[in-house]
# Entry
Amino acid sequence: MTDSLPISELKYKTIDELTEVARELNVEGATGMRKQDLIFAILNAQTEKTGYVFSEGVLEILPDGFGFLRSPDYSYLPGPDDIYVSPSQIRRFNLRTGDLVS
# Structure
């Protein structure tokens, strides 16, 4: 098993495959979870184990200074899988709207 699977890879796995990954990560109650809940539980377990979650997307910076990584799965519009990017990270790496971030 890979220690840390990116969100993009988890989204395309079947429920059975996700349940197996969850079992390997000792996620309690994985059987019977909805797909989105299972992905969230796996990401939570991975984060506890490794401290990291891997994803990528196109950055949209909002007027308040924070941003979100948008996914092509939702035509780069707001979606449930968007990743928050703090203003300090945006400043530190001199990020701009439209940047592809991994």
